[in-house]
């Protein structure tokens, strides 16, 4: 279902919305505006935080002593069971709330409703109404969760951190942007993506350098004749794969050049969203180290959490317009959408 909606063609209809949001974000940077999350976004964030805590292997005693599954909730040591019930409630609220709000909306493109209404492939016709709705709810919930705590939100943060740590990379990207665009317009989807290969390489390198999910999900599998039985926990070590020195020279170094001669991986939602977020920012802003009260630059530190969804700890930086006309360019670009 998601494959048919979010292939390189399907994602193109969302690009005007992504472009508008990217330009509005530029103005919020200038005005230091931070929006508080609305109810559905808060629910999604809370649900993903729950998944992040629940999915860590070995975190709870019941994983080692399965018979604890049968103990009553009120017994000492069964706190995990009470938490699990509360977490299930949060997850269900997220699934239902996002779906019902999307279904009632008539003013914007909503991913949930778009999938429901797309009967061209015949997929919707293979379910009865109740089953169809449940499949759509659960399928699109994974997408909303991914954008709330995944590539769409963490990807730009990784780009910011990389630009702080590797200013020469930022300078090269900005030189490419100035050469292709001048300083009269902002980058957008279409030809700009292909005429700005170094900026695209920064996006791909950010996804490799700091993968949002360092480990894959658990499931039954047979590998080279070895059957991995049900109940086993096997994680694909995404971090090690993307930091294999035999494949990536100097894997710990942020090096966009490694992607310049690769075959284009296609424009799916995560990469295109990160590109349209990163390219305009690099076009009009300089991302530099913050200057402390003592007049010295505050060096950023690469500190990450160790949860299922990997994100950097808070770091400070300075975001300033690159040239005097940048502010006028940002305000004018918003009117285009």
UniProtKB/TrEMBL annotation:
<dbReference type="GO" id="GO:0020037">
    <property type="term" value="F:heme binding"/>
</dbReference>
<dbReference type="InterPro" id="IPR050364">
    <property type="entry name" value="Cytochrome_P450_fung"/>
</dbReference>
<dbReference type="InterPro" id="IPR036396">
    <property type="entry name" value="Cyt_P450_sf"/>
</dbReference>
<dbReference type="InterPro" id="IPR001128">
    <property type="entry name" value="Cyt_P450"/>
</dbReference>
<keyword id="KW-0349">Heme</keyword>
<keyword id="KW-0560">Oxidoreductase</keyword>
<comment type="pathway">
    <text>Secondary metabolite biosynthesis.</text>
</comment>
<keyword id="KW-0408">Iron</keyword>
<dbReference type="GO" id="GO:0005506">
    <property type="term" value="F:iron ion binding"/>
</dbReference>
<dbReference type="Pfam" id="PF00067">
    <property type="entry name" value="p450"/>
</dbReference>
<keyword id="KW-0503">Monooxygenase</keyword>
<dbReference type="InterPro" id="IPR002401">
    <property type="entry name" value="Cyt_P450_E_grp-I"/>
</dbReference>
<dbReference type="GO" id="GO:0016705">
    <property type="term" value="F:oxidoreductase activity, acting on paired donors, with incorporation or reduction of molecular oxygen"/>
</dbReference>
<keyword id="KW-0479">Metal-binding</keyword>
<protein>
    <submittedName>
        <fullName>Cytochrome P450</fullName>
    </submittedName>
</protein>
<dbReference type="GO" id="GO:0004497">
    <property type="term" value="F:monooxygenase activity"/>
</dbReference>
<comment type="similarity">
    <text>Belongs to the cytochrome P450 family.</text>
</comment>
């Amino acid at each position: 279902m998601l494959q048919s909606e979010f292939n390189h063609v399907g994602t193109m209809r969302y690009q005007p919305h992504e472009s508008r949001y990217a330009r509005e974000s530029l103005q919020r940077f200038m005005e230091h505006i931070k929006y508080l999350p609305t109810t559905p976004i808060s629910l999604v964030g809370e649900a993903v935080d729950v998944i992040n805590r629940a999915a860590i292997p070995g975190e709870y005693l019941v994983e080692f002593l399965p018979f604890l599954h049968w103990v009553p909730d009120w017994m000492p040591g069964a706190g995990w069971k009470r938490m699990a019930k509360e977490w299930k409630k949060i997850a269900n609220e997220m699934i239902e709330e996002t779906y019902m709000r999307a279904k009632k909306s008539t003013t914007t493109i909503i991913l949930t409703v778009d999938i429901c209404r797309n009967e061209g492939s015949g997929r919707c016709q293979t379910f009865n109404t109740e089953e169809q709705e449940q499949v759509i709810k659960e399928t699109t919930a994974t997408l909303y969760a991914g954008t709330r705590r995944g590539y769409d939100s963490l990807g730009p943060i990784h780009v910011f951190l990389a630009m702080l740590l590797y200013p020469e990379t930022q300078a090269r990207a900005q030189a490419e942007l100035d050469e292709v665009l001048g300083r009269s317009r902002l980058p957008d989807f279409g030809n700009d993506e292909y005429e700005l290969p170094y900026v695209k390489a920064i996006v791909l390198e950010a996804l490799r350098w700091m993968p949002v999910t360092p480990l894959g999900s658990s499931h039954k599998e047979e590998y080279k004749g070895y059957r991995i039985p049900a109940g086993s926990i096997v994680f694909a070590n995404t971090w090690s794969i993307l930091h294999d020195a035999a494949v990536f020279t100097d894997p710990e170094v942020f090096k966009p050049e490694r992607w310049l001669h690769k075959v284009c991986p296609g424009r799916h939602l995560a990469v295109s969203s990160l590109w349209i977020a990163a390219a305009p920012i690099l076009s009009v802003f300089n991302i530099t180290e913050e200057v402390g009260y003592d007049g010295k630059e505050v060096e950023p530190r690469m500190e990450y959490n160790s949860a299922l969804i990997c994100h950097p700890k808070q770091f400070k930086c300075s975001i300033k317009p690159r040239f005097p006309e940048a502010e006028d360019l940002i305000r004018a670009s918003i009117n285009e959408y």
